[in-house]
């Protein structure tokens, strides 16, 4: 083991005797060679013992000093915490020397490491890798890379601290120091070992920026209560949890460990840490793909279709909705868990959307499939359009999350054009409505319409009708085309909403007017990009 | 008879608009409105009602008998218009102050008196407690018959 030097010897001896696994030993000796950690467990164990033996053969006296430092205390079984006084010379158990130790350590069962609780032991082995990959493959995701995230039990941080204090003390005797940051992090070493194995088995590289996440949660029930002493020492780090979840989260434990004084820590936690009976358990292995975004424009041809499902008291008031008709097929093709539909404004149930349609975007959450060619998207578009005559979509395409912002800015800033079928109580002639065509930039004051007042704040909105164009039909009907500022309530402009929208068609014509039909003729947003459909 | 029956209540998903009903004396021929006053007591003016947010916080709370305004006609009569609906006062119609004529010309639309939002739990029972147009007409007929 060329990475280890003379000064590492006492540390290796100490940690090996107190129940620490070879890889954790390398970590505390600040060995930074990734490949070394990937060596098989047995080989590492053998090499470490060789390393110690070499020295033993040369210098017996030094060896005995090293073998029997006054601070050691071996606990081979999980016992009650007692004061872990490093300087206590009495009541030491008989510490086996390395020679005797060989028999103790070479038991058929590998002892669970007292620092990593098996993470750098069992959970680096091919069996566990196979288990993870099996889960990934059966979940049937499409991915080109992966990020592997690991959640470790909080006790590991506590044990790491105890081990560091132990090693620091030992090195102090040699006049050497050991900064916490010099030690190789457990998670980092773990990833050095497991990433190449996962990568090989899954056939794709590990990439920190990958949208496909494989996550494993580890727990160690046997030592769950080990963190409790931190709550009495640093109570303000542990706030009562909202749910039943444990207060002892990793973050809270780490925070407390930063605060607690060394002496207090050693009073409450055994140093070296005790050897556990059991390994950690992999509680959860989950896969998750980052969301994909599909955008397009929709036309609405029904006067009986809400934008979102209309459900009151659990009862559906109207069949289906714009978002369901579009998303249904996307959900099936992308095999997503759920969706979030948003659009550049929206229209009422009884209003049609004509022209180029209204821009929309759908976020598909945790999709199993993520790659679609332009042809496949066209095919999807066709499927949606074939499935319903109430809505039609165009320009269906994959977009990035940031592109959504363009759509929302359209909602507030861009103009819309409408066509309204208007009824009047008193008769009208062509001349009576002609003047409307000449009105430009008409300013309206619109109080929050009564029909939405139950769910919106009361306010007055100033909105502009840019242009109008009238089409006489008969003495009581005409069609009006309008181009308006975003956010204008058209229906209220026609009927006046109890005089709360001023001016209104009724006041302009000096009659009572009502709106019979409304169509959106265009939503003047140039996003998403037009495709040749 | 009770003045309560002279109010009309038009409702859209919980929002109620209070207007004068057909048979209200102010809507009969020959009446001219002299003044409309939203100051119903020394401490309370309906004009000072201010609401904020979706839930209309700060609104004056009305019970059925809470006065909305007092209207005097030129023949010396004074009429108090009552809410008839329990709920939060959203707004009173200020247009009728500047143009009292619309109260008589368009009592059911531009000449409305006030907008009230009942509590969510009470909205259903309130709408059920109202008379339909037909039922109202029957009540009026009964009154005519009993007084003649």
Automatic annotation (TrEMBL), chain A:
The Pus10-like C-terminal domain, residue ranges: 293-524
Superkingdom of this protein's organism: Eukaryota
Stored Pfam families: Pus10_C, Pus10_N_euk
Enzyme class, spelled out: isomerase
Catalytic activity line of the entry: uridine(55) in tRNA = pseudouridine(55) in tRNA; uridine(54) in tRNA = pseudouridine(54) in tRNA
Entry EC no(s): 5.4.99.25
GO cellular component assignments: mitochondrion; nucleus
Keyword hit for Amino-acid biosynthesis: no
One GO process term, biological-process aspect: tRNA pseudouridine synthesis
Family, as annotated: Belongs to the pseudouridine synthase Pus10 family.
The protein, known as: tRNA pseudouridine synthase Pus10
Gene it is expressed from: PUS10
TrEMBL record, chain B:
Gene3D superfamilies per the UniProt record, alphabetical: 2.40.50.100
An example molecular function term from Gene Ontology annotations: actin filament binding
GO biological process: dendrite morphogenesis; regulation of actin filament polymerization; regulation of filopodium assembly
Subcellular location: Cell projection, Dendrite; Cell projection, Growth cone; Cell projection, Lamellipodium; Nucleus speckle
Keywords on record: Cell projection, Nucleus
GO cellular component: dendrite; filopodium tip; growth cone; lamellipodium; nuclear speck
Coiled coil: none
Database matches in Pfam families: GCV_H (PF01597)
Family in the record: Belongs to the ABITRAM family.
Name under which the protein is recorded: Protein Abitram
Source lineage: Eukaryota, Metazoa, Chordata, Craniata, Vertebrata
Gene: FAM206A
